[in-house]
Design goal:
Oligomer: heterodimer
Helix content of chain A: 25-40%
Mean pLDDT of chain B: 91
Number of domains of chain B: 1
Number of strands of chain A: 10
Helix content of chain B: over 70%
Largest sheet of chain B: none
Mean pLDDT of chain A: 80
Number of helices of chain B: 10
Structural class of chain B: mainly alpha
Strand content of chain B: under 5%
Low-confidence stretches of chain A: 1-34
Strand content of chain A: 15-25%
Low-confidence stretches of chain B: none
Order of helices and strands of chain B: HHHHHHHHHH
Shape of chain B: elongated
Number of strands of chain B: 0
Order of helices and strands of chain A: HEEEHEEHEHHHEHEHEEHHH
């Protein structure tokens, strides 16, 4: 990539990020879609996807659409393969059947170099942050810029400080990843994910294990980045409350199938017992509290087998 | 009985697929070399952590191995009244065998295990996956520089080992046991051939560096991304490297010194 990676337009909203606090969204600013080539309404569409791990079917013939400029959430209990879906979208895993289109391109039929070009336009926030532990916060955020652009160091410094300012961690630039709290490292990872001005960010469980304050900060940050930078966001999460606040559309997945979909309000009103149990967090319901086992009394009275 | 055959078939299949993955990995590494040459700083950093940080263990071990060789050689040779040939004996065993082999074993223990643990943990903490998602090929960015660093530092470390070992042998031989210093060095000069001994030793250490780095990096890259998986991978690195180094040493020795 060349110098023109940063055009005037993008500098404009970088300035917006710097000047306005990320928690205030300037509705007057209508910005065009970033970094995208196709003009379809759905930035990502998943068609008839089937994926298994071993003998377990993670996804069974599901289709999902992710609208441009919106925040779409994928919810479901742990172990339903939500992270797997993100890895499929990013082209790190291959589906058994079905296809995934990102910005009009079939991810799994791209050549390696094209896939890498596509990934430059995607940002992914890993659950662990996945910061490079041998570099400072500053170098972590600078990493994609240094790898993919030939910008002079002074320009990289400016860009990195802007991104760090956007997540509120400009003062932490000299810290090492092991000196950061969980919430901070996720924000640094977010700054790194937006370093190349992507068209879309994939969030893998952004709220898990966060204290209320950093959770609130992340919720606002995701929402405001999406609006200010004109991004499309996909959030994978099982934090019902936080996700419903910011999501425009929600898919609820269980055992490889979509069990509910709609706007947060529609999901709340869903007549599916399963979705109701998930949204309210009831201990028993269609999803049983007990892992399948034989009768309790029989089990206690039987002699048992030693392994 | 059928169970036995089944297990045999299964383990053969598993080890062949692993060999296949390892070979593919090696090809990826080799394709990554050009991109490392463009950015020598990556290589320099790794040369430091793989090579320079192994300096101390190699120097100290070399010194002691040389001193022991001096002692043992003196006692054996003096039985035949041939103490003056101690220089040849010490230098030949170091340059031909002990230098490349022992330094490669130490290298596998010191640098190889560190590489496996580092790469394995990077995998476990999703750093490699994260790089892929940032459109950075982790093989080019992380693995190839480390591989080249191992390949370059191994012969240098083996050379250092032999040199320090010879000094150790001389300290004991002429310093302590009274072998004539002039005889020690001149016999060595006359007895050691540049091509037959030194170059063959260097070839050995290049091969060992290649195999030890390859095993260490592959085991890390292929590790199951849990703490147990990384610990097992580290163990396998040391064990497999040691076997490969010793086995290859036998083959190389048979090929190189077979005629004499």
């Amino acid at each position: 990539m060349t110098f023109c990676n940063i055009n005037d337009n993008r500098l404009t909203y970088l300035r917006v990020v710097v000047q306005n606090s990320p928690f205030r969204i300037d509705k007057q600013l209508k910005l065009r879609m970033v970094n995208s080539v196709s003009s379809q309404n759905n930035l990502v569409s998943v068609r008839n996807l089937t994926f298994s791990r071993g003998s377990k079917k993670i996804f069974d013939d599901i289709s999902l659409d992710f609208q441009r400029g919106k925040i779409t959430a994928i919810m479901g209990p742990s172990g339903t393969g939500k992270t797997t879906l993100l890895k499929l979208i990013g082209g790190q895993l291959f589906p058994e059947r079905g296809s995934i289109f990102v910005d009009g391109q079939n991810v799994h039929q791209l050549r390696r170099s094209d896939l890498y070009d596509l990934r430059k336009r995607l940002g992914m926030l890993f659950q662990s942050g996945a910061l490079l532990t041998d570099m400072t916060v500053f170098d972590n955020v600078a990493f994609p810029l240094r790898e993919h652009t030939h910008l002079p160091e002074s320009m990289i410094r400016t860009l990195v400080l802007m991104k760090l300012q956007a997540v509120g961690l400009r003062g932490a630039r000299d810290l090492m990843p092991n000196e950061l709290s969980g919430g901070m490292s996720r924000r640094v990872a977010l700054a790194r994910a937006i370093a190349l001005d992507p068209m879309m960010i994939l969030y893998d469980e952004p709220f898990t294990g966060q204290d209320p304050i950093s959770m609130g900060a992340l919720v606002h940050l995701i929402k405001s980045l999406n609006t200010i930078l004109g991004l499309t966001s996909i959030i994978v999460s099982h934090d019902v409350h936080e996700t419903s606040v910011i999501a425009d559309y929600i898919y609820v997945i269980s055992e490889g199938k979509i069990v509910g979909q709609g706007t947060p309000a529609e999901i709340q009103q869903s007549d599916s017992e399963w979705v109701q149990q998930f949204m309210t967090g009831a201990a028993d319901g269609p999803v049983h509290f007990h892992y399948p086992a034989k009768e309790y009394v029989d089990d206690l009275l039987s002699s048992g087998k030693r392994y | 009985m059928i169970q036995l055959i089944q297990n045999l078939g299964k383990s053969t299949r598993v080890s062949f697929t692993k060999l296949g993955r390892a070979s593919y990995f090696l090809i990826q590494i080799i394709f990554g070399i050009t991109s490392v040459l463009v950015r020598p700083r990556l290589l320099l950093n790794q040369l430091y952590s793989v090579g320079v940080l192994s300096f101390l263990i190699i120097t100290i071990s070399g010194l002691f191995v040389g001193m022991v060789l001096g002692l043992q050689g003196y006692y054996t040779l003096s039985d035949f009244g041939a103490e003056e040939t101690l220089g040849v004996m010490v230098a030949a065993s170091l340059v031909r065998e002990l230098g490349p082999v022992v330094s490669a074993l130490l290298f596998a223990g010191r640098a190889g295990s560190a590489l496996t643990a580092e790469i394995g943990l990077m995998k476990a903490t999703e750093q490699l996956s994260g790089m892929e998602m940032m459109a950075v090929d982790p093989v080019k960015r992380i693995i190839t520089p480390r591989f080249l660093a191992g390949l370059i530092s191994m012969p240098l470390l083996a050379g250092l080992f032999s040199a320090v070992g010879i000094i150790g042998g001389e300290m004991i031989g002429s310093g302590l046991l009274g072998v004539d210093e002039g005889a020690f060095w001149s016999q060595m000069q006359a007895g050691i051939d540049f091509y037959d001994d030194i170059i063959n030793g260097v070839i050995k250490s290049v091969v060992f560096g290649f195999i030890a780095s390859w095993i260490a990096l592959f085991e890390g890259y292929d590790a199951i991304p849990t703490s147990e998986g990384v610990s097992r991978a580290t163990t396998r690195t040391v064990v497999n490297s040691a076997f490969s180094i010793l086995g290859l040493d036998f083959i190389l020795t048979a090929l190189m010194f077979g005629d004499n």
